[in-house]
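Whether sequence alone determines local backbone shape is best considered at the level of individual chains. When preparing material for the folding task, we compiled for one chain both its residues and its backbone structure tokens. No coordinates are needed to read the tokens, only the vocabulary itself. For completeness, the protein is quoted in full, as a sequence line and a line of structure tokens:
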Amino acid sequence: MTIIHILPEHVANKISAGEVVERPASIIKELVENSLDAGAKTIEVSVKHGGKSFIRVSDDGCGMGREDARLAIQRFATSKISKAEDLAEIGSYGFRGEALPSIAAVSRMKLVTRAKGDSNGTEIVIEGGTIVSETECSCREGTIIEVRDLFYNTPVRRKFMRAESTEMGYMIDAVSYLALANPKVRFSFISGERKVLDLIPVEKSFERASAVFNEEEVKHLIEFDGGTEGIRLSGFVGKPAVARANRQGQIFFVNGRWVKSVAFGFALQEGCHGLLMHGQFAIGVLFLDIDRSRVDVNVHPTKQEVRISADSEIKSFIRKVVTERLQRESDLAPLLKMMTPRVPGTGIAPYIYPEFLKTGGTSTAQIAEHAEVGAGFSARGGSADLCGGKPALTTPEFAVEPIAIKDKFHITKILGQIHQTYIIAETEEGLIIIDQHAAHERVMFELLFKDMKEGKPKSQGLLMDEILEVRPKQREVLEEAIPFLEKLGFRIDSFGENSFVIRAYPAVLELENPVQFLKQFVEEKEDGQIRTNMDNCQEELVALVACKRRSVKANEALTFEGMRTLLTRLSGCENPFHCPHGRPTFLKYTVNELEKQFKRK
């Protein structure tokens, strides 16, 4: 008896589906691409519950006859290619014949279609890859595909699906990116009863930039166009003023196909060399048209990974075109981020002048010294009240009253600060090195979290409401976070399709620009960068506020009094040993360990 056997077809289909259908957005991408291949001029996508329970894609394309409809749900059945040589000249989105059978294998799917010129249409219902019914029906020309109960028969896959808002973001991206590459096709995207996208036909992709970028970003986009032998590159890139904290704003197309490419991302970044700070990423959309024979799209079932022969030439060309276009731009100055007026009478001063400005006879040297060290005041214990005065290493006084850290050890002397980042202190057992930013982050986190748990966040009203513009995908991210943000002291209301009005924000952020803070929050949340070692989502948001507020940073000089205050506050924390993200706040060395290192023992 043999132990190797051929898998049943329904099992093979589920395995294949695992490669093609990763999430609801994968289904939308595959179905919309089929609609585009069918010559559709209008495509409508409807979803419910983040695509988990219902997805519907309808188009006015060429449709299918009864026989073609039957064949379309069979594996490796396609109208795009007929022989192996066709793989070298693929001009359609689809060609593998895997999408529909893979989708049908892990859902309850209904296909309704009518070919142009036919008097009646065909309706086929499939559950788990098995045809349940096939009937003649009355319908308009084109195709409608409904997908319900995704992964109902593969519970393991369903368990790994993300929150509805996260899945919504991926779906919006899929529709928006395909709309960018097909500006003359009308696209609409509906979630529940809300129309998220309604993109009318336009002449150029640039006119659809607002589908993926917010209003401020669109104002700072620069179009470019360039060509060389066998290569054509067009698109638009953002000025440095609208750079992001992640690569979410980098979108690439090869011969009209939306692809993911780390190499293209690096090429775009290199094209902006010298204009961006570390940790900033240019936004841009690149359309690359090259000889089809140079492109291998048969790399992965999703067709989002491609191989290009002599790709180093492509990367160099991208870098060259982007660099030259930015060099021709006359205005690349950063945006001036003005501070927002605060409501008088709240008890929170936005800025208190340092002592040397209040007394006469101050020398220029003192003013310069104070400006270098930093000045200001925060009523809630921000960075400014730790930094005023003389730098630590110029002050001879270093003895302090013992500071007990959880009764584990006692700090007896503060020895100073090195590289304006780490505090060195003597303990009864040896010494410790404190990361000043991580330590202050922990202090602020516990203060903020206590306020939130007590339901009494100290909120700061704005003299004038501020408007935050977001992209459709980011809207879902922000809407999900608003209840938690309000517990921290924010007051945010929806204001239009993709806009929010900020009316108040936490008093602890009195020196921060609320619009810029929330933009960075949404970008990092969208990119998955906001992570803590805690399970509670509320704690995650508090950790972000504690980190992004004007807390003590690296390369910031502290006074001895400031260091003493910081260590005293750290000693009162429930967990003084780690910042909210899990990094250590200090490292401890005993005299015994030091003596071993110096070979004294």
Remarks:
- Residues 336-381, 392-397, 531-536 have pLDDT under 50 and may be disordered.
